[in-house]
Fold these 4 entries.
Entry 1:
Amino acid sequence: MRERIRSLRHQVIEVPPITPLVIEHRLHRLVCPCCSTSTCAPLPADVEASQYGPRLSALVGLLGSAFPLSFTKTQALLDQLLGVEISRGAIAAIRQRLSTALEQPVHQAIAFARQQPVAYVDETGAPIGNADGGNPTGKRGWQWVMVTAVVTVFIQGLSRSGAAAIELLGSAFGGIVVSDRFSAYNHLPIQQRQLCWAHLIRDLTAIAERPGASAEFAAELLGLQQQLFAQWRQWKDGTIDWPTLQLSCRPIRLQFEATLQRVVDLGFARKERTPWAQTVRTCQQLLQRKEALWTFLDHPGIEPTNNAAERALRQSVIQRKISHGMQSRQGAICRSRLLTVTTTLRQQGRDAWEFLEQAWIAHHRGGVMPSLLPDP
């Protein structure tokens, strides 16, 4: 009996020529011969006054968020790949209409995020111009982000303050916030905070580069940190269970805090501005919030770093470097809403282009607005 020979499969992927679909509506106008009244047929009910359809409009929004292209590059891409010529003003108008359409699902997502048990938060500079008088003082704007398990929301603020942090989290947030040591989050009870160890490692590394006792103490603290994360990685990969993790980390925690206390006890002279004085001040700050260093060991499911929020902000940072900020308050809000939608949908494994198209249709033609929340 002959042995069956397996066939060879070879696939070639190609992109067919893309031609935009242009639908022309001709509205007849007539003048009454008796009263000279001019009448014109209306557009069909399912056709917007805009000359750009829902799918093209959704793509324009996608190119300003999931793919942070400048207006000029968005124009060039649409022209070269789709054969669609579009002005910068039209791009701005489309994104503003999308922003209006996304108001409801984004507000719903923000309310949902504020009810989650854990939130990773961060902020970055996001300049806003004064094209519409929204920021007449020319102050630097800020992009705030809150990352939860299934929803990520962005909010544009004009300040980097405690009030702006409350605007992001809400006044009644009851979960645990993972953040850096920025004072804007100090309104939260210490038991609701987890300080980011990635930021702490960077601070300890900087201390280790200082001369004398600073380097010695920093080396000791970094060594303890490495032991801590070695235990954490073993729990993450299933090598040890949760009780073993807590038990093995307890002596590391005690020694870490004792080392901080030794630095603080050595002290520094009043008004001293030496590198050693900076080291002592950092250790003092850590001791004041030492309970917040270990929250991740008390509650499973909390990461010890704020890397999730920093990754979420990366798109906003890239946009800022490309465009040097937004020119109006409305433009900044539009960017925040588009980033909320595209980042959340990527997080959930859903199609952002399809969502934006459905949101456009639901808002401008009527229908059910799609939701950013996960299915119950």
Entry 2:
Amino acid sequence: MELDLKSKVILQSLKVRKDKKHYIVEKNETGEFFEMPEICIEAIESINNNESLAIIEKKLTDKYKEEEVDLLDFLQQLIDLGLVKEVDGKEIIAHTKDQSTKGFTSISPTFAALLFNRLTIPLFIIFIIANVGIFSFYTDFLPAYTDLFIFDSMVLNILTYMLLSLILIILHEFGHILAIRSFDLPANVQIGNRLFLVVAETDLTAAWKLPSKQRNRLFLGGMFIDQLILITILIVKMTVSIDHYLINGILSLVVLDIFIKTIYQCCFYMKTDLYYLVENITGCYNLMENGKNYMANWVPFLHKDDTTTTFEGEEKVVKLYGVFSFVGVLLTMSLFVVYFIPQMVYLMTNTLPHLMNPLGNPFFWDALVIVAQFILMISLLIYSIRKKRKSALTED
């Protein structure tokens, strides 16, 4: 299909909202969202007002003298994004699917707002400061890698950790869900991966319907629950004398899990909750992609992404992202050195030798189950990575 300045163009039903720096365009039919600068919004409004393309291009050229205005190229981009309905009376078939979320609408917004309201973020900051303060004054509360091992049986240790971690993940994601339901918006939960970890991810796409400031609450919802649990346990440890080894062990294991996940949130080279928060605060919504493009000038194995653009005024934030990514890598390495590698060594040295025991020895089966669990986790990780790659190929 050939486009020229005499073409008659009809766009899809779109909703435009002013955001921090630019505008958010929502395609009503599919629930997709796109970030566009002011010049693009003026072009869309003019097209919807049935102005001729030649007049629109001239008007934009006169107004935005420092911009290179190519209306036909912009229209082709709109077609590729599925935002054009007709060109010269011919319908444009857009190969896009409904991406709007519809889950958890049974949760009452009034109920969700009891925990997530305008006081949530100040409380979150207070929790963070209080937890750091408690760890500073009560250094014995700092988690150790051995907190993972409550029992002599490694299987029981792993199963206990998996159960507690699953419960904490559910509570974390439930925090995101309650946060978005407090605005009467839907959400979905899906399985993904970050590095070697299998994680649950709450789809907060509907958050783009909200002003930038209100979206912060949604990104912090999970960590708010984490820090609430953490400060509760630390206060219990400070005020209550617990002699039972199992209760103490479980509480310490929960502290270990939340402590590691909190540090993990600071690893900005991945799209963590804090990463999305920074994106939202700065208004640089393709921060990782633009940051990688910037770092690709010095790091040879990084490939540039031609589908994203650094808007004017975002250069400093994009450069800072490279610094924070490097800090995130150091934090990840620290987690491996202090926790993950010692835990793995301890686990293997106390498990694998038991594979040589006779079948009647319970520690043989303990070791066998541990090996089976590792195989299962690796399988889930491979499945998650393949699913993500397949989804990316489908979108392309």
Entry 3:
Amino acid sequence: MIYLVRHGQTQFNAERRQQGRLDSDLTPLGRSQAAAVGRLLQGLTGKPAGWRLVASPLGRAQATADIIGRTLGLTAETDPRVTEVSFGEWDGRLRDELAAEHPEVFARKDWQFSAPGGERYEDVHARVSGWLADLPPESHRKVIVVSHGGAGRVLRGAFLGLSREETWAQAAPQDAVFRMANAAIVRFDCQPAEP
């Protein structure tokens, strides 16, 4: 079983700024979201014995994993294969500015994969699929993974065998947990978090 979590809200998220491989701190709301996710996972996993906590190496995922880990009594491992999509030259840019500069690109749902110097969908799919393939057989999986909005969508799409369009149409909440098991994904929402 895999529980997938997106990091809590960051300053860049609040500003609608592309983060990609850049980082910004969790906001007070983001820290509250991470704590709420930790409490939810505590109820979903029961005793943490035998569970692994894996996180992207980016600071926002590490900070979220630290908060969750304190709740569960787990220490996070780091795996770069679950890191966020690189948006190349668009990392750090405001989405509204990018949309005004590139309206033809932003008319597509998966505009993130069109960034100059950015990562392509196929590359992200290959690395998250590699991470999935390296996990133990499903009956022995007890993994909580803290990832990102883009990478998390692609991870869920790879798990279910979704098309690119179906993959990118999925939600990427910062206050929910996705249970991935038995060729199905179930979403669990947290109690609303307040900063």
Entry 4:
Amino acid sequence: MTVTRLRDIPGIGVDAVGDAADAADDPEFLRLENLDTDLRPPAVALTATRAAVDDDAANSYLPFQGRRSLREAAAAHVGRLAGRRYDAATECVSVAGGLNGILNTLLATVEPGQEVVLCDPIYAGLVNRVRLAGGVPRFVPARPAPDGWSVDPDRLAAAVGPGTAAVLMMSPAMPTGLVLDERHWSALAAACERHDAWLIYDAAMERIRFDGRPPSHPAAHEGLARRTITVGSASKELRLIGWRVGWVVGPAPVLADIRLVGLTNVVCQVGLAQEAVAAALAAPDAEADVAAATAVWRRRCEEVLRRLAAYPLVRPHGGWSLLLDARPLGLTGAELSRRLFDRAKVAATPMDGWGPSGGHYLRLVFANEPVERLATLGDRFALALG
């Protein structure tokens, strides 16, 4: 019998579509279902990984909180973007990927029955981790328009109340590409202070913006500096998906609790990967590397938007994916996903469970297919819907 904590936790859909596409074993399939990318990681990270294979110190549990070099690089990286200084010894801990960091942070900050504020739609994996930690998701709807998603700062702040433990925000958000800015942080600062709530910031994609602007980091706002817990990851910006390394940065008292949860949960991150991530974060050309990758992803995004201009797409402001509203086509997201898979060899994930409005949408990941293959999308959609 399913235990209580799992009864309201569905899958994420990506696994089912990905498994089906793998089983088809057909190179003609467009793989738009999983948040992968074919762009290579930074060369410095690959070099460091190869060296780690022969380093006995990399084949170890220790240090449990992450190697000093990694924590120093991560603390410095977050500090640069937030305009603050973080102590690597007391204000940073490494984790086994960003989502491990999110769960550890929720377990350290949320009492069972307390609310966690999220935008809708949002990644099901974030929603599910809130529930796994015993929290209650409270959704604030984002508004779709052809030129992108937006969420009202005042409405976001109004969702924070006496029962709120934390606000969990991602920018750019997955799967929408919603970008938050100073207006949102200003509104949330007063609300979080009033109700003694944390701001948990999922920074996995913060530099993957299509407007050319730098990230807007909540800890840069004076009113949020002591309330912001930043969870970062090497998976997206650095394309180090299989390395499974992330970091959590924030005030020392709460970081001590998050470190304790980590010791009790996954224990430690991948030893062979830590120096690679440290090197990629600290490399002199790190910003240029992320900018070059972002330029490729933006071109691919524009190709999808161009080929599917006749369909109800919502433009993302960053990230690796965009959403298509299936309702004007007379379909649910799941029905559209099935038609594309069966008739047109397109693997794309429906958004069931990705927030209250998720069932209306289909996600198209543009990070893992070149422009030449994405150019076939118009014909494939016509075949699927004809």
